[in-house]
Design goal:
alpha/beta; 8-stranded mixed β-sheet; 4-stranded mixed β-sheet; 40% helix
Length: 534
């Protein structure tokens, strides 16, 4: 009779462990109905076990194993207490993070950190994310937490647009995943979870002025309102993201360049500027203007339609060659050696370049050695091929054109432009020792590229975008805005788990592995018990 009682007690003890385990697992998965049922069954089994094996139940708490267990529990509690103390006291005072991710997902760019550290006004951020896009909401929360670590003037709250209907109506939300940046005066909406967009919104709130960039029109240039492959509509979008206004300007109808022009862009004109237009541009530069000039090589005629602009640039220490740059060492395979991928030189504009930019059909742009001492003219990009592998081709067909497919060129010393060939220049007036910052803003800055197609919609990729924005930011003395690269997660994306995959992981991690450990523990306990009884 006593033996049956012990066996029944052991059975209910095992049931207590099983029901306790299931209740714990159900609680982790928030299956509360199963949790409460199993918890109740575990308590009932424990009571029956204590009733049938009362002596063993009491002995468990006074046995040597119980004392060892109590000591271990106290040790664990002590370690946890020390960890909590260290986290609350030490870690709070010495709060440091190390981002070990390959793409630096948890690190802000230096321009963003600079802007946040200089932030002096309160900005409220309200992020609207529903339960349908929790993964995107988690990414937004991670980025915004990084922003809050850099400044105390940023407060963040997350709302559900389908629950907080009053706020949804207040901000007139149209998209789930919209983030509102606002101060006491105005607000900015962001619908893309990206550092650049967040920083741009903060800049729009904190800066009193919105600078204008004018694009010259009337000579078949690339237009900012052209959405075709040769247009510059993507350029306009990116400029607006960085708090600029991109506008068209015709000097055929305007007597002068507007006084609010932060920078003038002349993007690949195919017809000549008039004498009046050249005089206006020249006067603008003399008075401290900022010019981004992009001139494509003249491939259909030896006579260059942009000769007027070329002569104007000579006054500023910049020589624009009437040639075609060839690089047989570093080029785009699809287009051949006439589409070189040059190496960047050290400059504020190129310092953020992580990838090289290809220039399809480009001409040479080099500094003039015999220039005014007040001018600083620096090369931005040079070809990487050595003698015989890269040069500026000057020999044309009898009709004045280059070879139709840009092939068959051979370097001719003393005739062609020798390597390494410079294809982009940044020029500025030097600042004297007696100049102050206000005077420096009135000094002329010029950036010249031997190609304008690198910024066209068809090939306006991240490196091209970075370069164009960096040039504009340098011209307008906004070096702190030199571009913030968005993180591309497409190359790091894993295959999405199917429902059966998720169930397999859950069963394996929550049930199978613990069950194996539990069974192994029972076997060891049973073997030791048999040894003690023997």
């Amino acid at each position: 009779m006593e033996s049956k009682k012990n066996i029944a007690g052991s059975f209910f003890g095992l049931l207590t462990l099983i029901f306790s385990f299931i209740a714990t697992a159900s609680g982790l998965f928030r299956e509360w109905f199963v949790f409460w049922i199993c918890l109740l069954l575990a308590l009932v089994s424990l009571i029956i076990f204590a009733r049938l094996r009362f002596a063993d139940f009491v002995n468990f708490f006074v046995s040597r194993q119980a004392r060892y267990g109590a000591n271990v529990a106290l040790g664990i509690a002590g370690v946890i207490g020390i960890a909590v103390f260290a986290n609350a006291i030490v870690a709070h005072r010495f709060d440091k993070r190390v981002d070990l991710t390959e793409l630096q997902l948890y690190t802000l760019s230096e321009p963003t950190k600079t802007i946040l550290k200089n932030l002096k006004t309160e900005i409220q951020v309200t992020a609207f994310f529903s339960n349908d896009i929790q993964q995107l909401a988690a990414r937004a929360k991670d980025i915004l937490e990084l922003y809050q670590r850099e400044t105390e003037f940023l407060t963040v709250s997350f709302k559900d647009p389908y629950v907080d209907l009053q706020l949804r109506e207040k901000y007139q939300l149209q998209y789930d995943g919209t983030i509102i940046f606002e101060n006491t005066e105005r607000q900015e909406k962001v619908t893309v979870v990206e550092e650049q967009k967040f920083t741009s919104a903060i800049l729009k709130l904190t800066r009193n002025e919105t600078k204008k960039v004018y694009f010259l029109v009337g000579h078949e240039e690339h237009a900012v309102d052209d959405f075709n492959k040769n247009g510059y509509s993507n350029v306009r979008i990116e400029l607006e993201n960085q708090n600029y206004i991109a506008s068209a300007l015709s000097l055929l109808t305007e007597p002068a360049i507007p006084t609010d022009c932060a920078a003038l862009v002349i993007a690949g004109p195919k017809t000549a500027l008039t004498r009046h237009e050249l005089d206006v541009v020249s006067k603008y530069l003399t008075l401290g203007g900022k010019l981004l000039l992009m001139l494509d090589p003249s491939v259909t005629s030896a006579a260059d339609v942009n000769s007027g602009l070329i002569r104007l640039m000579k006054r500023w220490g910049i020589a624009i060659g009437n040639d075609l740059v060839i690089d047989k060492e570093q080029f785009v395979p699809l287009f051949g050696p006439s589409a070189p991928v040059p190496g960047p030189e050290l400059h504020e504009i190129t310092r953020v370049m992580r990838e090289r930019v290809a220039f399809p059909v480009v001409r040479s742009v080099t500094p003039i050695a015999d220039r005014a001492s007040s001018l600083s003219v620096k090369t931005l990009f040079k070809t990487v091929g050595e003698t015989g592998n890269s040069w500026g081709e000057t020999q044309r067909e009898t009709d004045g054109t280059f070879s139709e497919d840009f092939t068959g060129f051979i370097y001719s010393p003393d005739v062609d432009t020798p390597p390494p060939v410079s294809i982009a220049i940044a020029a500025e007036q030097k600042v004297g020792e007696d100049r102050d910052k206000e005077t420096e803003r009135d000094l002329t800055r010029i950036v010249v590229f031997g190609d304008s197609d690198f910024a066209a919609n068809a090939i306006f990729r991240e490196p091209n975008r970075d370069l164009f924005l960096a040039a504009i930011n340098w011209l307008t003395l906004e070096e702190d805005l030199i571009t913030i690269r968005p993180i591309d997660l497409r190359g790091q994306t894993l295959r999405q788990m199917l429902v059966q995959d998720e169930r397999l992981v859950q069963i394996t991690s929550v049930f199978l592995i613990p069950s194996i450990v539990f069974t192994a523990g029972l076997i060891v306990w049973w073997q030791r018990r048999k040894g003690e009884n023997a």
